[in-house]
# Entry
Amino acid sequence: MNVIKPLFQELLKNKRLSHINDLHILTDELDYRSIDQVFPLFAEQQFFLDELQHQKVQNAEVLEIGLGSGVLSISAARAGAKHVTALEINPRAKNFAGFNFVLNGVEDKITVLDGQQDLWKPVEGRKFDYIISNPPFEPSPPTMDYFYHSASGPYGLDFLDSFLLDLDKHLTDEGHTEIVTAVPGDKEGPNLLLDLIEKHLSGTAKVLVNPYSMTFDELMDRLAGKEMGEVKDIDALREMAKKDGVTHFYLCVIHYHKGKKSTTVMPSEKTYSEYWDVPVKEYLIK
# Structure
């Protein structure tokens, strides 16, 4: 232990070890500003873990698109998945995720494949019992060199649009999908998400909405504060939102399975953190 403790303390310099449920996950700190940042854990990951359908994960072939730190895949593996296939486009994230697999004892249950711009191409022709994702969702101007884990077009929906487009092709008939994301809408709710569900999905969707929402302007202030793009481009997003009636941003979990086409929207049982910029508790080596 006298050797291990200093090794871990050296490892954690400029990194963050978070404790969420019974998992320990290593990520970057928020002040790591390169686009290959491995995102710390926030309320969105806790929302996903609280909603994980453990009975459906048991002995399931699981697919995650957008591995990141690996926390979602690890939770599925620990919940009894037969195997997890995970896709990731960021080489640095794959390195962190591999460490986290070993740290949490699931390195033999997860296979990582190279992600692609064509999201489903690495698993073309395959179907899965449980498909999971925490997709990039932050609105970002196309001119901005923004984080891999967050950049997803002017309304933050580009990744989700591609994901939902071919979801039915890759989900088994009895399979289940769970997505945690944040989406734009008006003051009544996440209407742009509901439009995508109506457009792409043929089955039954349930959307759980965190009772606390951010305004679109608050989100733009957050984006401007990161100083990774031109103020004029961020202001252009604000003006686009005003024109389109987009005023709010909602944290949601989507549950989906094949069956009769319907969409239900309801509040989540828990209210997740108001402070979307505050990571979950850091674990300290004593």
Notes: The mean pLDDT is 89. The first strand starts at residue 15 and ends at 20. Residues 4-267 form a domain with the Rossmann fold fold (CATH 3.40.50.150). The two ends are 11 Å apart (CA to CA).
